[in-house]
């Protein structure tokens, strides 16, 4: 006869712990999938940091990682809408490339040689960027029209776009690299000049913390207004403290990365500043492309959660037939989603080309895979109907962390591709398992 009483205290303690975790998650309303992704990201960071001999979790590498993630994260926010509607966009990397080439030619050749603008004219980068955004909008509208109104599958249309727009990028300059770009345009790529400095970074950090507090208080008042269940005060406080700590920690890291010595000396000479014996510390602060990515993330989150258009997108993805019967113009919504994707590809093209200070034919190559992987890893279901902008941006950070870490570890490029592909397959498998359990 088996004695079952000896394990009773342990089972009771385990059940109590699981109950406490469940109550905590219920009170804070945290997404378990998001927590799992953050946990995976931390494990990857710590693991690569140890394997690289302490090179990964440094201000310099984390700052560069944030800049490298920006362009993919921006496009991933749009890919969420595309995949939520049960579509796919394989052309975003090529669209990024052709728009980057157009913007490069516009500011480095056309506006100067044909129109007669002078170097340094502030309209150079403005017109080039506006032309890129308009072109992205038109490309998105064109592809969206074919998908929505001509009933051609998105996979085929965007696969064709992948080939067409990559070829167009080559034909525009016959394979030439266009450089250098306008000095002001280059600021969107980051670097010492493309950052906002320590003081402005702290100001933005404090403002962001105030915004978090306002959002929590406003959300609580709205729940009271409509008689929705309220989170406990301790849960609201916990969420606010954690969010503000993360924001201020990110600002501190950005401000811990100084300008290179050579640029500091040049800056000191130009401004008549004496360099102390122990050196002159000038912090990078938050990079401009990172701020652009955060701004896009906020706007896209608002669109998906606070607008009728966002609700339509998720309704169509959840049940296209029911959405159509409910009176939603599914064709026009689909077209607008691809228009948004085109605009976001243009913004990413500006960041990527500005970072390189050149428009090259390789710009955006294979970015479509990184963008799709970021969205799927971030919790966007390929079956449609579910996904979050924040999750996609975290997915982009995770993908870029893997790539950056593998570069630090000296892993060959073919093996890097194998790892990225394996991670994508595992992410889709986990999504399938999660949906079956739900």
Keywords:
2 domains, mainly alpha, globular, ABC transporter involved in vitamin B12 uptake, BtuC, 17 helices, 74% helix, 438 residues
Walk me through the structure:
Helix 11 crosses helix 12, helix 12 (308-318) packs across helix 14 and helix 16 packs antiparallel against helix 17 (413-437). The model has no long low-confidence stretch (mean pLDDT 90). The longest helix is centred in the middle third of the chain and has 29 residues, at 197-225. This protein is mostly helical and 438 residues long. It has two domains: 60-192 and 287-405, Orthogonal Bundle (ABC transporter involved in vitamin B12 uptake, BtuC), CATH 1.10.3470; 195-286. The chain has 17 helices and no strands. The chain is globular.
> What is the highest CATH level, the class of the largest domain?
Mainly Alpha
CATH-defined fold name of the largest domain: ABC transporter involved in vitamin B12 uptake, BtuC
Determine the fraction of residues in helical runs and give it as a percent range: over 70%
Rg from C-alpha positions?
24 Å
List the helices and strands and how they pair.
Elements: H1 8-28, H2 32-51, H3 59-84, H4 92-114, H5 123-149, H6 154-173, H7 183-186, H8 197-225, H9 233-255, H10 261-271, H11 288-306, H12 308-318, H13 320-325, H14 330-356, H15 367-377, H16 389-408, H17 413-437
């Amino acid at each position: 006869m088996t004695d079952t009483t000896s394990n009773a205290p342990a089972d009771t303690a385990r059940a109590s712990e699981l109950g406490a975790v469940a109550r905590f998650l219920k009170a804070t309303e945290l997404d378990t999938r998001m927590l799992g992704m953050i946990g995976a990201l931390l494990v990857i960071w710590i693991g690569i940091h140890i394997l690289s001999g302490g090179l990964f979790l440094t201000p310099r590498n984390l700052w560069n990682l944030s800049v490298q993630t920006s362009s993919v994260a921006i496009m991933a926010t749009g890919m969420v809408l595309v995949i939520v509607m049960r579509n796919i966009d394989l052309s975003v990397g090529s669209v990024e490339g052709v728009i980057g080439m157009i913007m490069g030619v516009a500011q480095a050749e056309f506006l100067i040689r044909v129109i007669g603008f002078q170097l340094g004219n502030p309209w150079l980068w403005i017109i080039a960027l506006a032309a890129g955004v308009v072109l992205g909008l038109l490309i998105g509208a064109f592809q969206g029209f074919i998908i929505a109104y001509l009933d051609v599958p998105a996979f085929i249309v965007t696969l064709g776009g992948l080939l067409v727009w990559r070829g167009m990028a080559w034909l525009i300059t016959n394979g030439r690299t266009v450089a250098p770009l306008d000095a002001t345009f280059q600021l969107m790529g980051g670097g010492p000049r493309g950052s906002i400095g320590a003081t402005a970074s702290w100001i933005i950090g404090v403002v962001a913390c105030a915004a978090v507090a306002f959002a929590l208080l406003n959300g609580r008042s709205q729940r009271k207004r409509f008689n929705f269940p309220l989170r406990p005060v301790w849960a609201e406080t916990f969420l606010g403290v954690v969010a503000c700590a993360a924001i201020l920690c990110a600002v501190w890291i950005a401000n811990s990365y100084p300008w290179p010595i050579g640029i500091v000396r040049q800056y000191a000479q130009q401004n008549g500043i004496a360099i102390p014996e122990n050196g002159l510390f000038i912090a990078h602060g938050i990079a401009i492309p990172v701020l652009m990515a955060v701004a896009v993330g906020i706007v896209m989150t608002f669109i998906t959660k606070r607008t009728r258009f966002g609700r339509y997108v998720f309704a169509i993805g959840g049940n296209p037939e029911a959405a159509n019967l409910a009176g939603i113009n599914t064709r026009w919504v689909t077209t607008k989603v691809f228009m948004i994707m085109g605009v976001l590809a243009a913004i990413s093209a500006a960041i990527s080309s500005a970072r390189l200070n050149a428009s090259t034919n390789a710009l955006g190559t294979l970015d479509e895979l990184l963008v799709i992987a970021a969205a799927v890893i971030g919790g966007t279901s390929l079956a449609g109907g579910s996904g979050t902008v924040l999750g996609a941006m975290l997915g982009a950070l995770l993908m870029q962390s893997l790539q950056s870490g593998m570069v630090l570890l000296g892993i060959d490029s073919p093996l890097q591709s194998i790892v990225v592909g394996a991670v994508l397959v595992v992410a889709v498998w986990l999504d399938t398992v999660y949906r079956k359990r739900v």
